[in-house]
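Our preliminary data section would be incomplete without showing what the modeling component actually yields. Below, a chain of 126 amino acids is followed by its predicted structure, encoded as tokens that our downstream tools consume directly.
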Amino acid sequence: MTEGTSVKTYNGPVKRYVQTLELRDDPELIALYRKAHSKEEAWREILDGIRQVGILEMEIYILGTRLVMIVETPPDFQWDEAMARLATLPRQQEWEAYVARFQQCAEGATSDEKWQMMERMFHLYE
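Predicted structure:
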């Protein structure tokens, strides 16, 4: 894929978070994980909850078993508060248990425990 990905523009600045997670090295499980995140299969309650806590955009990229998630939020977004609230929303615990079978993670881990925050070490713009 060398054509790039279009991104939404906003009327002002946004904050960006980047996280990573490793999937189990099983092509069948990876295919099921992809399917679970497709427009047809994604759980509506989970998508609604992500928006309810103030997340503007969320993208997940995959290479082999490595996932990278990019999250865009308003500048005043408070990550820890939002993740604590997200964990209490309808079906969130059920979703975390469902996707855990695809992910290399501890049993019962929350989304915020599974996804590791990445540190930006370079940027081009001023």
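The mean pLDDT is 95. The beta strands are 15-22, 57-63, 66-73, 116-117. Preliminary results of this kind motivate Aim 1 of the renewal.
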